[in-house]
Write a structure and sequence with these properties.
- This protein is mainly alpha-helical.
- It has one domain.
- The chain is built from 10 helices and 2 strands, in the order ααααααααααββ.
- The chain has a two-stranded antiparallel sheet.
- A hairpin with a 6-residue loop joins β1 and β2.
- α2 runs parallel beside α6 and α9 runs antiparallel to α10.
- The protein is globular and about 50 Å long.
- 38% of the residues are buried.
């Protein structure tokens, strides 16, 4: 996950502090949101190893970019697949932690989704762009939702925790990867005001006319 944060920082031409920040945010952001929602102690506060590993991983991306290795990984969407694996891992773990904490099934699924995609959302906000989960039309949060639901259902069917974990993880990773390589995903919504439609400027309150009218 830290790799995707470092790549986003590089595309925005951030300095090394920005690289580390985005790498750490995407790595621990979802888990932080999960713990805050559940009223738990934030996991990396008691064990900063997670942050340290994320920081080192993010910094390691910088020299890779100079050797063109990162370009190859990005061209074949390896970076995105690694991010998908991280998202799947956090989504299932987040769902399980919510269940153990006493959340009902629906809440546990929601917490799992937040845990899975939260880091990416925070990364994109700090990179000054619309979160990828909301704009690219690919299977992303929906994959986490399906996988978290599968995990809860399997546990209700008395499937072992380990088996349920790997099945749910595989479902999320497969759905996300298929979307990445096939282009299949969620329909996007496009809306443009009709030509000649007069609206008020939200800042001045004055009427404005759409270009082309």
């Amino acid at each position: 996950m830290a790799v995707t944060g470092a790549v986003a920082a590089g595309r925005k031409k951030m300095d090394l502090v920005g690289v580390v920040a985005l790498g750490c945010l995407v790595s621990v952001g979802g888990g932080t949101m999960r713990d805050l929602l559940l009223g738990r102690s934030v996991f990396w506060v008691s064990n900063p190893t997670f942050v340290l590993v994320a920081a080192v991983t993010a910094l390691a991306v910088v020299p890779l970019a100079r050797t063109r290795v990162l370009d190859v990984l990005d061209r074949y969407r390896i970076v995105q697949v690694v991010g998908a694996a991280g998202m799947a891992l956090f989504a299932v773990i987040g769902t399980n932690i919510a269940l153990v904490a006493g959340s009902n099934r629906a809440a546990a699924v929601i917490v799992g989704v937040v845990s899975g995609v939260g880091g990416g959302v925070i990364r994109d906000i700090f990179a000054d762009q619309i979160p990828e989960v909301l704009r690219n039309g690919q299977v992303y949060a929906s994959a986490a939702l399906v996988g978290a639901t599968v995990y809860v259902v399997l546990l209700e069917l008395d499937v072992s925790v380990v088996l349920a974990f790997w099945i749910a993880f595989s479902v999320i990773l497969a759905a996300r990867t298929l979307s990445l390589y096939s282009g299949l995903g969620i329909p996007t919504f496009h809306y443009e005001r009709p030509a000649g439609d007069d609206r008020s400027d939200p800042q001045t309150g004055r009427g404005v006319r759409v270009a082309g009218s």
